[in-house]
Design brief:
heterodimer, A: alpha/beta, eight-stranded mixed sheet, globular, B: about 230 residues, alpha+beta, four-stranded mixed sheet
Chain lengths: ~400, ~230
């Protein structure tokens, strides 16, 4: 019991430290101001497309709807061996827009298609975009503005699911909203460590430091860490967004998350030398916090799971004796229970979680308290399960498919 | 310094914001301190409640004494014994709550239990008298248990299980059955005497109608009180 309490207090301390740190960086940051673009540089979008007949048209139309001169936008779509109607759709769009289509055979990983397209880019900026990701009108302009800072090599943005109909879509919406907000804070500490579904790059970075690592299961995390390795920075657009398709079935979410989780572990191990004071807060806090955050989720849910199982076994045993629970409580019982430190700390964490919700809601108004409650009470169990699978696979050295 | 990595851009933008680390550790420590202080404050308010509880028990104890003296000269059947039984049950529940919060070995809880057990014995005698004089059939069950993990007189888990069975029995016959619980490790002359009278050397033990029994299932107890 005492051992359980010590473990519990360790996890509570860890979660408080992580949360306070993010909050402090948030409070400490200075508002960024960007000068309006005097001239609009040329930008090439590189879109790998594999069987993207359902989304590719919307994706391309959104690019040309962007608040950016159309003659400065080039779009390279790498048709990665699609077997559906993707190529036909692309050919019809080509009549309307300045679009270049490259056909290649599928080699199993998105990075091959990305690299294929990036090699053809002649413009100073390259935007890497998933075929199912739709950019909002102002995103491109704001991304290019961020390059005003010479150490910025890539710019990413708030990314949200394009649909909120099903339970898993709504849960991922909450998850993406929180992740996006965390990334915004990370940006204030020069510590963004990934370039996800939408990312603009200085093309020179690819020429100087290489293309995407096609052997890497999460090439976007690898690229993010590579940028950090050379002491460059990843910018972040918080006031514009890209919408992306998210998996809706549990087994697809599991597959995606296991790949992400595995990729994060793999890349953190690969770039373990970045865990160093030379990398400032990024090296000594934010990188370790990627591990510690997972540890907190896992620990909290293993403890909660243990308590639920042991309480259930006790309850079943007592019910088998003929005892029936009485659902009545009084003021005396409530005050006595609340006076325990673990309960006091839980109340504090609950209030803190509520505060975080309202902070994030400022930026993403669409998230609801009810979805957040479900996220905390239900969806987090899935996340803990995903991490357990990742850890087992990572330790056992299982190979993952892209 | 990561020597093998070329730093083309320099790392001047990299900062270790010591003030944030200090603030974060301070805030975390403050949350714990605040939690402990607030918890202590509430626990102290419970301690006051506990003292009040104790005073109530004393009053109840004295009231029982007076009642006995008064009732010897008046008709006991005119009194509503149920209020008294309910009050006793509430006290018992409160002690159980405090026991769960402060631990089974907390000295103030042990004193509470000692006094409470004397009250129980008093109540037990009152019920006996009430049954005889007023032709009632309130059943009394004496329950001897242990909280000690390695008690040579019996396993505490069995005592705990018996407690749950008795709670179930009490819930089944709220108006009829009165359970009086005695911790065999409380050094109380009155409890010791009861243990001697009923020859209690193993726990859990139950006394129903002057007969001593070991661990009983709900169905067995059902039959015993009928």
């Amino acid at each position: 019991m005492a051992f359980q309490l010590i473990i519990l207090y360790c996890f509570i301390s860890l979660s408080l430290i992580l949360s306070f740190f993010y909050l402090m960086v948030l409070l400490d940051r200075t508002a960024l101001k960007f000068k309006p673009l005097k001239k609009f540089p040329e930008v090439t979008f590189v879109i790998p497309a594999f069987n993207a007949e359902n989304c590719i048209e919307k994706t391309i139309r959104a690019i040309f709807d962007a608040d950016y001169p159309k003659n400065k936008i080039k779009v390279f779509v790498v048709n990665d061996g699609s077997t559906d109607n993707t190529l036909n759709i692309l050919n019809s769009l080509k009549k309307e827009y300045s679009l270049q289509i490259f056909n290649k055979t599928n080699e199993g990983r998105k990075a091959y298609a990305l690299n294929y397209g990036i090699k053809q880019v002649k413009t100073p900026y390259t935007v890497v975009l998933d075929a199912d990701t739709i950019i909002s009108r102002g995103l491109l302009k704001k991304s290019i503005q961020r390059f005003e800072n010479p150490i910025i090599m890539a710019v990413t943005s708030k990314i949200i699911p394009d649909s909120r109909r099903t339970f898993f879509e709504r849960m991922q919406f909450v998850e993406y909203a929180f992740t996006s907000y965390a990334r915004d804070i990370l940006h204030a500490a020069n510590s963004v460590q990934t370039t996800p579904a939408y990312a603009a790059f200085r093309t020179e970075f690819f020429r100087k430091y290489g293309l995407f690592d096609a052997d890497n299961i999460t090439e976007d995390v690898e690229m993010g860490l590579r940028i950090q390795k050379y002491h460059y920075d990843i910018g972040y657009v918080f006031d514009s967004f890209a919408e992306t398709a998210v998996p809706t079935r549990l087994k697809d979410i599991l597959r995606q998350r296991v790949r992400w989780g595995y990729g994060v572990f793999y890349n953190l191990f690969k770039y373990r030398r970045l865990f160093h004071p030379e990398y400032g807060d990024f090296g000594i806090f934010f990188l370790p916090s990627m591990f510690l955050g997972i540890l907190v989720i896992l620990g909290a849910f293993i403890l909660a799971g243990y308590n639920i199982v042991s309480s259930s076994i006790n309850l079943i045993h007592h019910l088998s004796l003929g005892w029936l629970p009485v659902f009545e409580t009084n003021f005396f019982d409530v005050i006595v229970s609340v006076s325990q430190l673990k309960v006091m700390l839980s109340i504090f964490i609950f209030l803190f979680a509520l505060l975080l919700f309202f902070i994030v809601k400022q930026n993403t108004k669409e998230i609801t308290l009810w979805d957040y409650v479900q996220y905390m009470l239900i969806y987090n169990w899935f996340l803990a399960y995903f991490y357990i699978v990742v850890i087992i696979k990572f330790i056992s050295g299982s190979k993952l498919k892209w | 310094m990561v020597k093998s990595d070329k730093i083309p851009n320099g790392n001047k933008h990299r900062k270790i914001r010591v003030s944030i680390y200090v603030a974060v550790i301070t805030f975390t420590a403050l949350v714990f301190i605040l939690g402990m202080l607030l918890g202590d404050y509430l626990a102290n308010s419970q301690s006051d409640e506990l003292n009040l509880n104790q005073q109530k028990l004393f009053l109840m104890y004295n009231g029982l004494d007076l009642k006995e003296k008064l009732l010897a000269e008046s008709d006991i059947c005119q009194f509503n014994i149920n209020d008294l039984l309910n009050e006793r049950a509430k006290m018992g529940a409160n002690i159980e709550t405090l026991e769960a919060r402060f631990g089974k070995t907390d000295p103030s809880i042990l004193i509470q239990k000692e006094i409470y057990e004397i009250v129980e014995i008093k109540t037990m005698f009152l019920i006996k008298e009430y049954n005889t004089k007023c032709n009632k059939d309130y059943a009394s069950i004496l329950f001897f248990y242990t909280n000690k993990e390695n008690d040579i007189r019996g396993k505490w888990q069995a005592s705990e299980d018996q407690g749950f069975i008795l709670t179930a029995l009490g819930a089944k016959y709220p108006e009829k059955v009165n359970i009086f619980s005695f911790d065999v490790n409380i050094k109380n002359p009155a409890t010791d005497s009861l243990m001697e009278i009923y020859k209690i050397d193993k726990v859990p033990a139950l006394v129903v109608g002057n007969q001593t029994y070991g661990y009983q299932l709900l169905s067995e107890l059902d039959n015993l009180i009928k």
